Amino acid sequence: MARLAGSGLYDDYVVYERPGSYTFAGGVLGEVVLDAGEVRTRWPDTGTASAPWSGRPADVLREAFAASPLPVWNAYGWIAFEFAAPRPAGRLAHLVVPRAEVRVADGLARVTAAGPGEAGRLAGLIAGTGAAAPAEPAPVDVRVGAAEYKPRVARAVADIEAGAYQKIIVSRRLDVPFPVDVVATYVRGRAANNPARSFLLDLAGFQATGFSPEVLASVDAAGRVMTQPLAGTRAFGLGRDTDARTRHELETDPKEIFEHAVSVRTSQDELYGICARDTVRVTGFMTVKERGSVQHLGSSVSGTLAPGRTAWDALDALFPGVTASGIPKPEAIEAVTRLDEPRGLYAGAVAALSHDGSFDSALVLRALYKEDGRAWLRAGAGIVSGSTPDREYEETCEKLASIAPHVVPLP
Fold first, then answer.
1. Which residues are catalytic?
2. Other residues' Cβ atoms within 10 Å of the Cβ of residue 136
3. Which intervals hold domain Chorismate-utilising enzyme C-terminal (predicted)?
4. How far apart are CA 352 and CA 341, in angstroms?
5. CA 383 to chain centre
6. Partners of residue 210 on adjacent β-strands
């Protein structure tokens, strides 16, 4: 995947990893770009069109793809956290139907491409020798910014105690003080993480790579939908004895258990709104998931879409992830816009979707972002009534350690 992404064949690309498979989507055959004031589409033969929009953003994306002249398509891209904001601003989504796809699974690569010669060039890259080992990383210091972050946590706790909401995720941005090689960072970071999904993308000059700890929404062509809330965190990778101790703390801490339970309940309620009620199930309740430098309490919530419902309804119901926004969601999202600076892709989603109605999306956490020559990391912590600023700051440091040690400078 790194060889394909770094080949220079395509200015725009998305790499998306699911269990057992990787996909490289290169170039742009079709495109849907959603901004706060306008939706823009580009399709073969029909060209580029733009229009103002109103209503639910998920419905705008649904209509844009329904108008595609392509009978068969797959699309890949990203959705910003502000997609769900009451007063959205900036770019909200960028999804492309690629010119070429390389899917790798079970040791085999399948190549499809729109243009003559493209498939051959891609096959040559796949068959070539392995890419050179990426340069050594330059670890980014995560223990900065406490004086700015902790007061915001305290304000959130005060809001919770006043009854404004039950839970909110307060995050902090960490700027990287040197130019970054995003592709090499993906290689280094993926070797050190075991994500639910991973991704690497460059669309219109915006680059990102990350190791998502949880599935936001996955819908198959038969309408089976699944989400995977993870909430409750302790450090991991500090040695067998320390990991066992922190795991025990995680499984027995009342604050962590409460944080997880209310997140699962919210996900369940969201699926009740779009699924046949008797199909909604919680499985693997509070199973510990090891994700890079941290371990979480995790559960899976699933169901079957009710008649007339589609993957777009699942996106609308589940986005943004409860574990990256808060409870109740509307109040928490509004509070995030006051307590955090604009998030963009952080706590949004990277998604893969298809003409057959299937949809898969990763919650964007444990990621690096780069635009206009500047790179940054971001992490947050779930704030509930039992939270303390010191512990929540420590949790952001633990999460940032999933990627901060693996950031590779440009040569």
1. 214
2. 10
3. 147-399
4. 27
5. 20
6. 199, 367
Dig out the tokens for 62 from the structure: 């649904």
Q: Residue 120, class by beta-carbon neighbours within 10 Å (0-12 exposed, 13-18 middle, 19+ buried)? A: exposed
CA–CA distance, 256 with 234 (Å, rounded to integer) = 9
CA dist 286 to 228, 250, 289, 296, Å?
Answer: 11, 10, 9, 9
Position 361: which residue type? S
How far apart CA 2 and CA 29 sit, in angstroms, is 22
Q: Tokens in use for 394? A: 């420590």
SS3 content of the chain, % helix, strand, coil (to 5): 30, 35, 35
Q: What are the φ and ψ backbone dihedral angles of 276, each rounded to 5 degrees?
A: -60, 125
Rg (CA), the chain: 21
Q: Is 395 helix (H, G, I), strand (E, B) or coil?
A: helix
The string of DSSP codes covering 293-332 is TEEEEEEEEEEEBPTT--HHHHHHHHPSPGGGSEESHHHH
Instruction: List pLDDT tens digits, range 218-262.
Output: 999 999 999 999 887 888 888 889 989 989 988 998 988 988 899
The amino acid that residue 388 corresponds to is T
Question: Looking at residue 19, what is its pLDDT?
Answer: 95
Are 125 and 3 in contact, with CB atoms under 8 Å apart?
yes
Handedness of CA 300, 305, 310, 312 (dihedral sign): negative
150-202: pLDDT as tens digits: 999 999 999 999 999 999 999 999 999 999 999 999 999 999 999 999 999 99
E-strand ranges in 80-130 read 91-97, 100-105, 108-113
